[in-house]
Amino acid sequence: MSGRDAFAALIIRTDHSDGEAWQAVRAELLLPWGDDDDEPAVHIVDDPAWAGATAAEVIAAVSGDEDLSVVFLADRATMVAHHRALLAVAVLTREECANDEEFEAYGGAVRTVPAGIHDIHANLAIANLDFADVLGAAQSAPEGVFRSF
Fold this sequence. Notes:
Elements: E1 9-13, H1 19-29, E2 42-45, H2 55-62, E3 70-74, H3 76-80, E4 86-90, H4 100-106, E5 109-112, H5 116-125, H6 131-139, E6 145-146
Parallel strand pairs: 1-2, 1-3, 5-6
Antiparallel strand pairs: 3-4, 4-5
């Protein structure tokens, strides 16, 4: 992902079936966030070459980026859901972990509303929280979709 600032959340569009839905998602991604209305730091990849890519394929493609702990996919489910939730995927494979407990703490995937990507990315980037914390927050949220901490 050349040109991505290390502090920018990486969003990859993998579904190109609904341009109007994508524009709505993109608009939400670019809104100010947090208590201080911070400017969003995002790197959006909107390239048809990623159409239909699976989470595993994306992880394999971005795994060389040592600054990246999570990637967000705007997939088919994103485009059809009323909440436009993206798939947040930890950039970690089971093989990279010493045991199952480590993978459970640092790996996995969860749905997040567009506004939630900033909380997730920022907290993981500074190692304030683990991906397990994100999963826990999502499990207690309506529809199992992460919204905020």
